[in-house]
Amino acid sequence: MLKSKTFVKKTRSGGVMKVVREHYLRDDIWCGSETCTECKQDSPVLQNDACVESNLCSYPHYLVPDTNVVLHQIDVLENPVIRNVIILQTVLQEVRHRSAPVHKRLKDIIHEKEKHFYTFTNEHHRETFIERQPGESANDRNDRAIRVAVKWYSKHLKTLESGPDGLKVVLLTNDQGNKQKAEENGMVAFKFEEYIKSLLANPELVDLLALSNDDKNEITSSKVLFPEHLPLSRIQVGIKSGSYLQGTFRASRDNYLEATVFVQGDGEDSTEVLIQGLQNLNRAVHQDVVAVQLLPRNQWLAPSSVVLQDDGVAKDDDVEENEEEKLRLSAAEAARKPTGKVVGIIKRNWRPFCGMLNVSQIKESTRHLFTPADRRVPRIRIETRQASTLAGQRIMVAIDGWPKNSRYPNGHFVRSLGGAGEKETEQEVLLLEHDVPHQAFSQAVLSFLPKMPWAITPEDMAKREDLRHLTVCSVDPPGCTDIDDALHCRELENGNFEVGVHIADVSHFIRPGNALDKEAANRGTTVYLCGKRIDMVPELLSSNLCSLRSNVERLAFSCIWEINHKAEILKTRFTKSVINSKASLTYAEAQMRIDDTNKTDDITQSLRGLNKLAKILKRQRIENGALTLSSLEVRFHMDSETHDPIDLQTKELMETNSMVEEFMLLANISVAQKIYDEFSECALLRKHPAPPPSNYDVLIKAAKSKVSLVASALNPVINVKIYYISVYYLAVITRG
Fold first, then answer.
1. What is the pTM of this model?
2. Which CATH code fits 2-209?
């Protein structure tokens, strides 16, 4: 069955274009239930025995949540207790448009077989598809589509005619109007909160509930503490007219009453607007995209030098006026900056936050304050009945909202991470707070790994250059198992050197766009912690097939130069290759080989040639204006039994460290030049813009005071020269 919709729209050139959208309807879409005998389905998802202990639903039942339930209660839906859930296509599409993170979490739940979540494509089913009626809003149409689908399921599974112990379909919604209409049509419908509270065997789920509007009204006071946020329509008009500025809200770590809003401009036109005081901060949270209004110039302030931490023992919901006065007094003497106030929120960038619970001193109170690990995030008020259990633990909390009559945002408990101070717990907090993906690789990702045992095929050899005869070796830190680069150097008959950098060819194993590629792109890099490594790709690749270990054949991508004794590049070529590394060395082992005059083997000769050229390359780079930014690296010594760090040692930098660095840089430069030559229209140049002048303010102020002390005994001419020389070098350092 085919539905079509025809409409016209105006094109950019001013013409009119007719658009026809076809919508196909079917009557053979499965319901996904084991109970059903009508649908011809191979592997039903929804269980026949869909029972859960509830004082509302004593019968087996499937759950159908509406869009707002999924958006706001995803933490509950992820719990293992919630099973046999029908996710309608209408809901899935709405969630995708409104929240990409929630949509991803929902898709992950659907892929978990143990959860028994079934996606029903009601928008393409002949009996559940509905047209939008004249004058009906999109939201009302979607609510009606959900009710029609629930009604169809009830009829399809013959639950309305069955007894009280028969299988039923339950609509979960927090919309009173939607619930009432469903009940009028003979459907079973509950508010999400009342259904969760009815699960007597799982009271812990109540803590996961995001606060409803009714709950928020109970918690907040009647006193208005913050200005109303402007609607998005007014904000957009104000930004277009220049009345408001759009920027990213950056809270201060040291002063909870202060923040800056970074307003992106063109080139060096970017500015920072100072925000001071709770009312001017107006419920913005770190990393939110906000609209700010500049205050009159005579109200501009300077950044405060006072360190203020929110102690959490609020004078209830009163704004600390005495602390704000202290803030203003401390800033009076310093240089003033553009100052403004937050008038609206353009985009919330909330996430679950790690931290600890401050248990209320009021006996039997269920309302407590949560202190985030990140000092830039405000304390969050939550309700929990397990405060005594959570005390002393690291937990995760999500923000539900921040009403204008509440001193703190309201939120809900998500999960416990473990005891505070425990190594595994603190590592988990570190990874979560810095948004480092560290979950185990999914089966969908692992399914794209090559089958073992793996070997290079004749077809692979035919497409690659055979470089297994070359004296290739790798130089890495001790204990390195993911060896992704190797080098070789040999003298040619004409007296020049042939130098090669060989990079593990990961692209042979990871095809563009598959689950493995997407996961690697999401992770971006391998992350190293003390005694722990979080791989970008599964270990089979990172530490085996894509690790250029010694004495095994590996696929590589090679950059090979002909270089003279002055380190001038005469020829460059790139090739896919097969190599066989002759040695996997540490920096210290490679340095010992170079320094030992008694060693003259091929590996040592190769290392000496590389080291000699690297010194020349480094000198040339520095002469050409390269900036050297070196910082001390440290290495942890671990206890062999407990795996706890017991000592800290500064890494000693050797010539071999610089040797590897120089040739990796040279390979990058050569690749960049090749891309520019071959794809000049697509080549990108990464250019760091000049830092804004405000970055120099503190340093220049400090330099002025130091210079004035040093030069006070000198004559005026020398005084001026010293000042300008000092500021010049200061600017060079800070720009670097």
1. 0.75
2. 3.40.50.1010
